[in-house]
């Protein structure tokens, strides 16, 4: 079982990734929520190349990744579910929910701590909001995130199946809730009781800081309501809101090289340059 999971994990994750990316891209063409003023040809190359670099970095630094760490935890008897007898279904379900809660708090941490925000702001600096925005994370952020995830997996003793399920679902929902897609308002209200919807998460990408610091959930929507960070709609409306952050608003900042060095740039110098 363990060898099978490790062998087929990249193939499974890759297949789901490709399917969801293609499905969301087609949905965006068929039923877009907002008009895009920066064309895909200027944004997508950097956004897609960064996910390739992120994948390579994780595989080099963490060869076994999260699923492998879960298998090691089982062998060593680490973590709650390797010490306390529990039905497999309960261990899997609880692990997925706790991992999602950990990602919620991690997301809040990356907004609250200045040097972590410098890494995370690259995600927010996209000038549009679509499926590829959900893939746009700095490699250093991805590696820190993986380190946190490995620690949570070890403490939980999360089953490898739960970790694989969580990784696949998180990746798919990240692309979904960053989609520039239109959902009927009533359906959106019902759906966001179970999962973070594009309209819910788009608020988080507003240029208005109080809106940026809301709706931190990527997968399950409950945490924002429970911990007081939920915001129903952007003040300017979804068609009137501005996407991004104030400091990086030039199209050239969407290039891969600029994305990689962005955490090391001074926002004040960048703002001055933008107004030349």
Automatic annotation (TrEMBL):
Signal peptide: none
Domain (Fatty acid hydroxylase): residue spans on this chain: 93-229
Keyword vocabulary terms for this entry: Membrane, Transmembrane, Transmembrane helix
Stored InterPro entries: Fatty_acid_hydroxylase, Sterol_Desaturase_Related
Pfam families noted in UniProt: FA_hydroxylase (PF04116)
Subcellular location: Membrane
Membrane found in the keyword field: yes
Transmembrane segments: 12-30, 51-74, 80-105, 150-170
PANTHER family (alphabetical): STEROL DESATURASE (PTHR11863)
Name of the featured protein: Sterol desaturase family protein
Lineage: Bacteria, Pseudomonadati, Pseudomonadota, Gammaproteobacteria, Oceanospirillales
